[in-house]
Amino acid sequence: MPSPHPPRVKPRPKSAGFAAREVAAASLASILDRGRPLDDAFEAAIARCGPLEARDRAFARLVVMTVLRHRGELESVVNAFLERPLPADSGRLWPILLSASAQLLMLETPPHAAISLAVDQCRADPKARRFDKLANAVLRRVAATGKDVRATLDPIAANIPPWLLGRWRGTYGEALAREIAAASLTEAALDLSVKSDAEAWARRFGGVVLPTGTVRLNRAGAGRIDQMPGFADGAWWVQDAAAALPARLLGPVAGRDVADLCAAPGGKTAELAAAGARVTAVDQSPPRLARLRENLARLKLDAEIVEADVLAWDPGRTFDAVLLDAPCSATGTIRRHPDILHLRRKDDTSTRVALQGKLLDRAARLVAPGGRLVYCTCSLEPEEGEAQVARLLEANRELSRLPIAPGEAGIDAAWITPAGDLRTLPCHLASPEPGLSGLDGFYAARLGKRD
C-alpha cells in the first residue's frame, strides 16, 4: 500500500542568495504573524539565520520593505493564482510567496533565481516542503502574468488599511488623503543633519541642501551609511528633514538649559547640543538610551542623560526650554517604517492619546517662567497633535501659542496651520527627482510660558 505521505524532497545545497531570502521570509513572518516591529524582527532573523554580507543584508531588507509597502497588491496577485486558501499549518509558505512575488514584480529579479530559491526555501521548511510544487507553479504564473493582474489594482486602496485611509480622508479630504497615501508608499530620501557647511557636504555626496538646511541624498545611491565620509568623524547624523524642525523652533539655545523628553535615539538631542544648549535628555528605554550615548559619542557632543519615566521624573528645577517628542502612532513615518501599516489598529490610538496628554501636562510644569515648550509627534492624526495642544491651552492659562512664521527655519508657508503650528505631510517638498521628494509627517506646536 502506498504511503499517504509524499516522499521527502531533499533540498539542493544552499546557493548564493538563499540566506538573504531566508532572513526576509523570517522577518516577514515575525512582523505579519506576531506583530513584531521591523527592526527587531530583522535583527532577530539575522541572529537566527546567521550573519550576512553587507550586500545580502541590504537585499534582504529591500525585499522586506518592498513586501510591507506592497503587501495588498502582492496578496491580490498571489491569490489570483491559488485555487483555494493555504492551510494554517503551511509554515513560512506565505511570506516565501510574497517575497518571491515582490522580487518578480517590483525588484526585477530574474525569474529563474526568484522561483528556484523560493522552492528551495519551501523544501528547507518542515511545514512548507509539501507545497514546493505549488510554490513553483504559482510563482511561474506570477512571473508570466502577475504584472497584468497588478495593473488592475488601485495601489492606494490595496496597500493602505481601509480604516487608516478613511481617517485621512476625514481629516484631509479625498484628494490630499490620496497624495499622502501615495507618498507614504514610496521610499524616503536619505536626510543628514550636518554640524557645519551643509553646501560642502551636499557637493561631496552629490546631494542638495533643502531650504531647512538639511542635506538630502537619493537613498538608492547612498550605500552603507556607516561607510560614508564623515560618519566616523561625527560630522553628521541621519535625521529626516521634518524631524529636524521641532528643535529649531526653540530658537537660539546656546548656553540655555533644555530638557529633551522621550529623547532617544537622540537626533534632537544632537541638534540641541550642537547648537550649544546644556541638554538633559530623558528616556525610559535602556536600549534606546544606549543608542543615544553611542550617537553622541560618535558626534563628540555632550548631554546629561537620564534614564527615567518622564511622568515620574523630578529634576527639582525648571528649564529655559522643553522639547517633548511624544510617543505616537508614527503614521507620518510610513515611508521609513512600512511595518506601521501592518502593526497599527483602528482602536489602539486612545491609550497613546491619554499618555500624550499626561506627558504634555508634565512637560508644561518643567518650563521656567518666560520659557518655551515645543510639543511634537510624527503622527498624521489630529488627536495626537492639534487636539492635544488645544486641550493644554484650555487647561493651562500660563501658556500661550507662539505662532510659527513662514520662512522661519526654512519652513514653507504650506506647512503651517491656520493656528500657526507646524504640519508637514509625506507629499510635501515634491521634487522632479522622485528619490529626493517628500517629508515625514510631523506636527509641532510652540508655546510660551508667562513670566
Give the SSE layout:
Layout: H1 18-34, H2 38-49, H3 54-80, H4 93-105, H5 111-124, H6 132-151, H7 155-159, H8 162-172, H9 174-184, E1 190-194, H10 198-205, E2 208-209, E3 215-217, E4 236-238, H11 245-248, E5 257-261, H12 267-274, E6 278-283, H13 286-299, E7 304-307, E8 319-325, H14 340-343, H15 349-365, E9 367-377, H16 386-395, E10 399-401, E11 422-424, E12 442-449
Parallel strand pairs: 5-6, 5-8, 6-7, 8-9
Antiparallel strand pairs: 1-3, 1-4, 2-3, 9-12, 10-12, 11-12
How does this model look, in words?
The chain is of the alpha/beta class. It folds into 2 domains: 18-157, N-utilizing Substance Protein B Homolog, Chain A, CATH 1.10.940; 240-449, Rossmann fold. 43% of the residues lie in helices and 13% in strands. It is built from 16 helices and 12 strands. It has helices spanning 18-34, 38-49, 54-80, 93-105, 111-124, 132-151, 155-159, 162-172, 174-184, 198-205, 245-248, 267-274, 286-299, 340-343, 349-365, 386-395; strands at residues 190-194, 208-209, 215-217, 236-238, 257-261, 278-283, 304-307, 319-325, 367-377, 399-401, 422-424, 442-449. The strands form 2 sheets. Strands 5, 6, 7, 8, 9, 10, 11 and 12 form an 8-stranded mixed beta sheet that branches. Strands 2-3-1-4 form a 4-stranded antiparallel beta sheet, with helices on both faces. Strand 2 and strand 3 form a beta hairpin. Helix 3 crosses helix 4 (93-105). Mean pLDDT is 94; it is low at 1-7.
